[in-house]
Amino acid sequence: MGFQPVKFYQTGTFTVGNRLLAPDERSLQSGETRSNSINSGHRACQGCGEALGARYAIDAAMAESNNQLIAANATGCLEVFSTPYPESSWQVPWIHSLFGNAAAVATGIAAAMKVKGRPEVRVVAQGGDGGTTDIGFGCLSGMFERNDDVLYICYDNEGYMNTGVQRSSATPPAARTATTMPVGPEPGNVFGQGKNVPEIAMAHGIPYVATATVADLRDLEYKVRKAMKMHGARYIHIFVPCPLGWGTASHDTIRMARLAKESGMFPVFEAEHGEVTGVLKIRHKVEVEEYLKPQKRFAHLFGKNAHPETVARMQAIADRNIRKYGLLNVHGIDATTDDETCHARFPHLNPLPEGEEANESLREFHVNEGDN
Ligand SMILES: Cc1ncc(C[n+]2csc(CCOP(=O)(O)OP(=O)(O)O)c2C)c(N)n1
Ligand code: SF4
Ligand SMILES: [Mg+2]
């Protein structure tokens, strides 16, 4: 069966999904060749972004390594819901490290495989934001500094969810958690300077750093597969909404991830050896308020005792991300209406008229040439 070239706005609409793409372009949920690294029957909450993100990330890593993969997993929701002893949902050799040492355990596995003469066996470490940005941070930095041959994946749900929604260094300002100010003039997390681990990873100059969200699973798969083609220390930071901890509807997980990206609150980019090489542009810009409002952890910012000044400070954070990473396209217009941008995203599906070349500055729209 043949496939006709289609416009980006057709393949990219939220309703049509990827059904109009060529088979090798699609994100399949199941198929004969798909490994399904984490089986059904695990105990994640309904709508858990972490379960979805982990399945797509590890499936992609398995595919790229020809199923020669070992995963080290920090303590946290992902570990707890997938492996209540003596059961396991994992279809991959998998080891539970401590809360804070997944990077070090993965480094040891990679070293052991090297000594055993098994270079084809690849290693992934994974953990939540608490295990990554807080307690596991020293081990992670060591792994980066030594350039160990490990892909580390952080599933960022912006809090210690497994132990009852405590604050982590990835919790955003103003968000309410079990360990932030419940009442007073400024409830919720403080406006600190933040701790941007993707940027800290870039500062180590490691071969590859990327961010992704569960709202764009094809982008997530692309980044994992790209990382698995490389050697040395690699880091992918995946934004995974948590319905329980955020007070969102379980059916809104993808929407929340999309709004985080489309508002600029979570910039999606990739970097090689410390330099940003591509960003995923905002397609339909939304105000931060649209992202914050559906979340009960930000409910105190709206309604009777609203805090518009706090919302404005959050908007300023998003605006800064937009400026810093160039998240709006060069014309500042909706990306789906820009033919050149369409071309940059899907060059094979949206060929430009003969004789015309894509604007060089739009190449950063995303997806390096030749990635497919
Ligand atoms: C040394 C140590 N301190 C505390 C804990 C308890 N603990 C287990 S998981 C967890 C929070 C995990 O948070 P995160 O890494 O963000 O993963 P999430 O559950 O949010 O996916 C904590 C505090 C522990 N297991 N070990
Ligand atoms: S608490 Fe959050 S991260 Fe943990 S299983 Fe539930 S939805 Fe997933
Ligand atoms: Mg967490």
What is the assigned CATH homologous superfamily? Thiamin diphosphate (ThDP)-binding fold, Pyr/PP domains
Q: In terms of per-residue confidence, which ranges show pLDDT below 50 for 5 or more consecutive residues?
A: 8-15, 331-372
> Helix and strand succession?
HHEHEHEHHEHEHEHHEEHHH
Mean pLDDT: 87
Distance between the termini: 21 Å
Tally of distinct domains: 1
Structural class: alpha/beta
CATH architecture: 3-Layer(aba) Sandwich
| CATH C-level label | Alpha Beta
What oligomerization state is this entry in?
Answer: single chain
Number of strands: 8
What binds here, in terms of ligands, is: thiamine diphosphate, iron/sulfur cluster, magnesium ion
Net shape: globular
Gyration radius, to the nearest Å?
A: 20 Å
Percent range for helical residues? 25-40%
What percent of residues are in strands? Answer: 5-15%
Spatially, the strands of the biggest sheet line up as 2-1-3-4-6-5-7-8
The main sheet comes to: 8 strands, mixed
The CATH topology turns out to be Rossmann fold
How many separate helices?
13
Question: Mind explaining what this structure looks like?
Answer:
This protein is α/β, with parallel strands linked by helices and 372 residues long. It has 13 helices and eight strands. The protein has helices at residues 8-11, 49-64, 77-82, 102-115, 129-134, 137-145, 197-203, 217-229, 243-246, 253-263, 288-292, 308-325, 339-345; strands at residues 69-73, 94-96, 122-128, 151-156, 208-213, 234-239, 269-272, 275-279. An eight-stranded mixed beta sheet has the order 2-1-3-4-6-5-7-8, sandwiched between helices. The longest helix is centred in the C-terminal third of the chain and has 18 residues, at 308-325. The protein is globular. Bound molecules: thiamine diphosphate, iron/sulfur cluster and magnesium ion. Iron/sulfur cluster is lined by residues 44-45, 48, 50, 77, 81, 157, 161-162, 242-245.
